Structures are given as structure tokens and as C-alpha cells.
Amino acid sequence: MNENDQVLIEAYLNGQLTTEQKLDFEKRCEEDQAFRNSFEEEKQIYLALNDREAYDFIVKTREVLIRNEVNRSILSGTKRISLFLAVCTVLVIAVYLFYSSPGSSAPQDLYRQFFEPYPMVLSERGPGENRFSALIGAYDRGAWTEVQSELEQVSGDDLPGALKDLYLSIALLGQGDGVRAEEILTKYLDSPADSIYQYTIEWYLALALLKNGKTETAKTLLEDLEDKVNSTKARERIKALLKAI
Amino acid sequence: MKDNPKNTKALLEALRVGKREAIQKLYEDFFPGLLLFVRNNQGNDEDAKDLFQECLFYLYRHLRKSDGKEIENLPAYFRAMYRNRWYHHLNRKVKEDEVLRDYEIVISGEDYYYYLYLIAFEKLGDDCKQVLKYYIEGKNTQELARLLDTSVDYAKRKKYLCKENLKKIVSGLLQKDLNNE
Predict the structure, then answer these.
(1) How far apart are alpha carbons B51 and B89 in whole angstroms?
(2) Is the pTM of this model over 0.90?
(3) N or C: which end of chain A has fewer CB within 10 A?
(4) N- to C-terminal Cα distance for chain B?
(5) Could you give phi then psi for residue A184, rounded to 5 degrees?
(6) A15–B138: do the CB atoms touch at under 8 Å?
(7) Which chain B residues contact residue A3 at CB under 8 A?
(8) B85 alpha carbon, distance to own chain's centre
(9) Closest CA–CA distance from residue A154 to any residue of chain B (Å)
(10) Contacts of residue A55 in chain B, CB cutoff 8 Å?
(11) Cα dihedral A148, A152, A157, A161 in deg (nearest 10)
């Protein structure tokens, strides 16, 4: 198709031809097979791309597929996460009992004693998902500055917002930045995330508050959380921290 | 999934207007079965996702053109559609005992190409997406050049290349089907 025909077809599709020009165009379509074929192809493209709603539908379907895949990955790791948390809780309590004494550590230092990174769920993804290998590697090594930098490049499609905020706050707490961690997690008190994350978010928010010297606020949050969590081990962990404050 | 006619009608109506909740519901109800079917028939998880997206789109198109009253049994309808489409992609003839006799679903060439062009557009880079959006809005070459902050010749060439890119992606998708022979 030559450039003039291209321009002519586009003008026809955009309704930019005069009545006379339109008639000439349609006559040519009847008489010139090659021209008609080119026009049909351009028309298909034009109609498809002009259908904003159809395109949005395809994008939404893809988003649903991706979001459900992430949720499936998280759920499949739940049993391992529960076991891991249970073991961590027992260890934390043991260490606390071994080292604790009257007049225990200042609240600002307490967060370090109880700080344990939440398991990285992206590790649960199948082979070939090496886009996140740098993030996962840094997280496993506790290289928190690198984790923060890698997370800032992860899109909402790959990691739900609440989970991304959770990991970002963990990275910040790992670097001792309780202020930013608190800033990021506070919004979930007014707008709770999915229940699978919310209690964990509140736990880390409590740690951030302790780091920032807001002991009473941390205590209130932990007391409230203790009543809400179902897991006995999690409750014991919260109790241990409350006792230490 | 309970096949309550009222529920089906409401769900199809929600899908017709493109509601995300309807897409999610259909995902929950049908994707596991579709995934199992694809895995058992020479496909993988990515194939299953593509097939689900394709079939859901055809259902959406169908609902926008008609009211979908004939879809009394949505699970059977959707199952017939994805099985037929998958066998089409494998270029297999459907065996007698595999045919779901309740529904004979024919996807028109027009719908098929419509879907291919939209998928191809989704795969384009952001710059080409923007250029083609301006084209659809009726911007002439001079306006395009101004919007892209470039020369008229470059704008003309860019539009041409983006369209060619789109057609190339569609050809690739069509070839993928042909190669399954």
C-alpha cells in the first residue's frame, strides 16, 4: 500500500473525507481488490484500537490472573510460614528468658530483640521467575538497603501493595529507620489490608513505634493485637514483648 | 458453582459492562477446571491463562452484541468454549465423546482478529501505544509531530513503524496457531 492510499484510508476511517470523496473511496473499494484488502485490514485495526472498553476488559482480566497467581503463591506457603513463625516464637521466648533481667532494655532497643524478617513469599514462585532473584538474594542476606532499592522497582502487579509496604518497612527497620517504617504502615490502621497481612503489619508497626520511642502507643497497639490474633504462638510473642516494655 | 438462573443473569450483566468483580468470580469458578484441562492436554500454566483471557473476551463480546439469554448453563457454555478453543489451537479434531452437545460455539473471524489486535496492542511499547492512540483520536501527521515534539517526517515514520509492529505481533500470534499442525 502506498503512502497516499494509507493517508486516504486513515482519513476515511476518521470521518475526514467529504461526501464526494467518501463515494469515490467506496467505489474504489468495489473495483480494486488490493485496495479493499488494505482497507479491511486497516479497518480491523482501527475498530479494535478504538474500543477502549474492550481493551480495558483485557487489561482487567490480565490483572485478575496475575493477582490471583500471587495470592496462590502466598497461600501455598502458609503452612511453612506458620511452622517457621512457631519456631521463631519459641526461640525468641527462650532467648528472652535467658537474657532478660529486671530493668530490661530500653524500648528503642527492644525492637531489635524482637525484629525478625517476615518470610519472603516471592521465594515460593516457580523456576524461571528470576526477575526477583536480586531482591530475594538481598532479603535472604539481610542487605536492607539493597532490598529497599529493589522493592522500589517492583510493580503493584507483581506484589500487592500491602505486602510491598510490609517488606519495605522491614527493610527500613533493618536499617534502623523506624520513622519511615511507621509512616508507611500507619495508614493500615485506618484502612486495613487483607487479613492475611494485617496482623503482621500491626506487629511491625508496633516495632517501629518502639524504635521511635512511642512506647505507650506501641503498647496499646500490641494489647489490641493480642486480643485479635488466633495463633497461640503469635499471642505468646506479643505477650513477651509487652512484658519486656 | 450453583447454577441459579438469577445469579447467572446478574453475573453475565456485570461481565457485559466489564466489572472486575465479575471477572474475578468467573476466574474462581472456571479457571481451576480450565487449568487442569489444559495441563492434561499438552499445555502449561501460561497457555491456560492465555486461553482463559481469550475465552472470557469472546464471552464479553458476545454479551455486548446479544443479551446472552441462550446461556442457561454458564459452566457448560464456558467449558464448551474453552475446550473448543484449545482444540482449535492444537489443531485437533474434537473427538465425538468430547463434544459438549449443549452448545455449539462458533467464534467469528471478526471476533478472533479483534481479540488478536487488542492483545497485540497490549504487547506494544508505551511509545507505540501512545502514537496509535493519537492516530485513533484522528490526529493528523502535523498534530502528531507537535505532540511527539518531533519532525513531521519522523512522526509519519513512527506511526508507520508502530502499525507494522502491531501487524507483526498479530502475524506471530497467527503463526503460533498454524505451527501446531
Answers:
(1) 9
(2) no
(3) N
(4) 36
(5) -70, -40
(6) yes
(7) 156
(8) 11
(9) 18
(10) 118, 121-122
(11) 70
